[in-house]
Structures are given as structure tokens and as C-alpha cells.
Amino acid sequence: MKTVISFYLIEKLREHIPFVAVTLRATNVMIVWQLLMQMNLLTKLVNIVVHLFQSTTMFISIGNCPNINIKLLIMCVSHEHLWRFSAINESRKYLANSGLVDRAITRQLDWGIDVPIKGFDDKKIYVWIEAVLGYISAGKKYCEEHGLNWEDFYKDSSSLDTYYVHGKDNIPFHTIIFPALLIALDENYQLPNHIVSCQFLNIDDEKISKSKGNGITVKDLLNEYSSGSIRYCLTYQAPELKDTNFTPEILEQLHNKSLVGEYGNFVNRNLAFLVKKFNGIIPDGNVDPNVISTIQETYSKVGTFIEKAELRNAILAIQQLVKFANRYYDEKQPWIQVKQNITAFNDTTATCIALIVNIANLYEPFIPDSSNKVYEFFGISNPNWEYISIENGVTLKDVSILFSRID
Fold first, then answer.
1. pLDDT tens track for 261-313
2. pLDDT in tens, 342-384
3. Does one domain contain both 270 and 151?
4. What span, in angstroms and rounded, lies between the C-alpha atoms of 118 and 10?
5. Which of 123, 185, 204, 251 has the smallest set of CB atoms within 10 Å of its CB?
6. For residue 44, what pLDDT is reported?
7. Which helix (H) or strand (E) holds 19?
8. How far is residue 186's CA from residue 179's CA, in Å, rounded to a whole number?
9. 22 in the Ramachandran plot: left (φ > 0), alpha (ψ -120 to 50) or beta?
């Protein structure tokens, strides 16, 4: 299906934008050949015979199409507040410094997607043309299989907001090539809105390399760690604005410090006390209104960060609420209040319960397994991502440790 739909898109493009078939002249090849010889780059080609031949390649005429040039420029300028700085800088380079040029869309390969145009039977579609058009192809196929209207996710409207997440080495394909293809189609496709260009995640301060064999697969990580620990670490260490580093040691440190020592400790010492002293029954108490405001402000901050694709800032904001919760608990000293002022203890407990369930709810998009575990403690089902209130008198169910320490 993906191939068929992509063929359809290629055929539609031919109606709206000129394709230029260019013959690679032997004289140009000889110039390149001579340069290679001068640079001694052929010394490694021992016993290899190199043949020169002419080949006809298909280009998309971006550089010579004013309509595409103008619309691309408008898109880039008007969306800069939604793009990461690396995407802005790289796109400016193509639009201003070097200018837009025609881009080859075919390759001389034995494998790949055939070019459905006469005279190019021996060619394949360049992968980064097929790949970006495949966003639409794959999306349409998914929608057809699940009874959804695919146009709701691709055709421009005020209710549609699109995000394109990719590595920094693939920026021009998402900010120049893909939008140019959509403009050429002239079928009201929404141009890329949020461009989420990521930097590199290194392993042990080295770039991941197949030749070095220093990569770590998710499958291997799952054999050693929980999905929640992996998700938390990779979000915390996400290379959103700069290259970052990953090691199992970093994962273990973050897990033990943030998830066990801060978040898990706050949950466990509150709930374990209720189970031990009150048979797991939440006492009647009033939630501190200032704490409610703090929780609601955190929802607002985290929601904004998520919408801006700043996921690292989102979990940092949640973890700030966890730190606040621990300070609140320590300042109120409920282990003393329960002996001296039961009303104050009940209010502190109600407030801490509100913090627990809402921290879990805030964390649900990032570490859902632990959030679902908290929901089960309180009998919560299918909560919305907003402030949750817990009624007094609820009995906790099957309370257990939220996170175990990694030693």
C-alpha cells in the first residue's frame, strides 16, 4: 500500500512541478576522475576495474520554481518560533547562503522502489523522497485499517497540529524537500508545523558506530532494566539542544536518585504509614489550597513543555513537584502530628495523597507503568490528564514499593 500511494503522489507531482532529466556528461565525469587521481583516493582500489558510463537522472526542479521558493521562505520565517534552533540555522543556509537547488530524486540501484515513469526503468526512487512521502502513505493505510479519515491528519486545518521528529542530519529533508513536495502537490496538505530536530545521543561519550559495535539495543536494556527506568533516563538525557551521553551507569544513578530516592520514597513512606496505622484507610482531611495551586501550575507548565516538544523540561518540572512534596512532608512531620494533633495529621495526609496521585498522573505520559500502579493503589480508572481529587475514606489496595533500588 505504501508503494502504491507513493506512486500516486509521484504521479500527482508531475502535474504540478517540472521534472528535469539530466544526462551526466562524460566530460564532467572525467573531471571528477582526474581529481580523484590527484588526491590519490584510488590507491585503495587495487585489482578493481572502474568503468565510466552515462546515466540519466531525474531531478525535482526546486531551484527554478518561484512558487516553491516563495512558499518555502514564508513557511520557514513564519514557523521559526516552533522550530529548534538547529533546524532554523540549517534551513536558512539552504534558503539564503547556498540557495535552493534542484535535487536528484532517483538512484542507479538494484534494490528499492521502482520509478513508475517511462525511460527510468533502471532507476529507483531516492530513499529520502520515498521516505517523507511515506509519512502520508503509511498514515493513510493506518487510517483505512482503523476506520479513520486520513485527511484529518494531513490536510491543513485549524484543528491540525503536526510534529516531525528527526535527527539533526536529516533537517533539510523535513524543512526543504518534504515541504517542497507538498507544495508541488497543491492538495492542501499541511506543511510541517513543529520541526523537532534532535542532536546525537552518544554512548560512553562516543558516537554510536556499527563498526565499533558500541551500540546498545532497547531489547538488551529491557533484559536488565524496567521500561520505566529506561524511559525516564532517555527522556532526562534526551539530546534536545545538544549532544548528550548515555551509559548504564547514568541510568542506574538516575533511577536510584530520582525514582527511588525522591519519587518512590515519598509515595512509600506516606502509604506504608497509612497501611500500618490506619489499615490503609485515608482519613478525613482537607487538602492545602496552596498545594492545589502548585499542582495545577505544574500541570500547566508540563503541558506547555509537552506541546513544545521539550520533554526533558517536562519531567524536570514534575521532579520539582516531587522535591516540593518531600519538603512539605518533612516540614509538616506527620509522624509527630499523628500523636499531637490528629486534625493537622489528617490535613497533611490528605495533601500528600493529592500530591501522590497527581504526580503519578503527571508522569503517566513518560513512565506509565508506575503511574498505573499508583492508580491501582487508589482504585482510579481512566483518569484525565488534569487535577485528580481523592475522596476521604478510600481504602488503599495492594500497596507495594513503587521502585526497587538497582545495586
1. 999 999 999 999 999 999 999 999 999 999 999 999 999 999 999 999 999 99
2. 999 999 999 999 999 999 999 999 999 999 999 999 999 999 9
3. no
4. 13
5. 204
6. 52
7. strand 19-23
8. 11
9. beta
For residues 349 and 286, the answer to whether their CB atoms sit within 8 Å is no
Distance CA 26, CA 17 (A): 28
Residue-level pLDDT at 6:
42
Domain at 263, CATH number: 1.10.730.10
What pLDDT shows up at residue 110? Answer: 86
Provide the CATH number for the domain around residue 10: 3.40.50.620
| SS3 sequence of 132-174 | HHHHHHHHHHHHHHCCCCHHHHCECCCCCCCEEEEEHHHHHHH
- In the structure grid, which three cell numbers stand for residue 167, read together? 535527527
The residue written with cell numbers 481512566 in the block is: 382
Instruction: List residues bridging with 104 in a β-sheet.
Output: 59
**Residue 281 β-bridge partners:** 395
Distance between CA 380 and CA 214 in Å, rounded? 43
Task: Tell me if the pTM is above 0.90.
Answer: no
Domain end call among 198, 214, 241 = 198
Q: State the sign of the Cα–Cα–Cα–Cα dihedral 303, 307, 309, 310.
A: negative
Residues 376, 378: Cα–Cα separation, whole Å: 5
Question: What's the pLDDT at 57?
Answer: 84
Radius of gyration of the chain (CA): 28
Averages of pLDDT over runs of 10 residues in the chain (407 residues) are 39 47 44 52 51 76 81 90 92 77 85 87 87 92 96 94 93 92 92 94 85 84 94 94 93 96 96 93 94 98 96 97 97 95 96 97 97 95 94 89 93
CA distance 318 to 299: 9
Residues 44 and 134 in one domain: yes
Domain that holds residue 40: 2-198
Pick from 101, 41, 44: nearest CA to 72: 101
Q: Are 332 and 355 in contact (CB under 8 A)?
A: no
Quote the CA–CA distance of 290 and 318 in Å, as a whole number: 17
Query: In angstroms, rounded to a whole number, what is the distance separating the alpha carbons of residues 183 and 189?
Result: 8
Q: Name the domain boundary from 198, 214, 234.
A: 198
Return all residues near 245 (Cβ < 8 A) that are at least 6 apart. Answer: 201, 202, 203, 204, 205, 237
Question: 176 and 65 in contact (C-beta within 8 Å)?
Answer: no
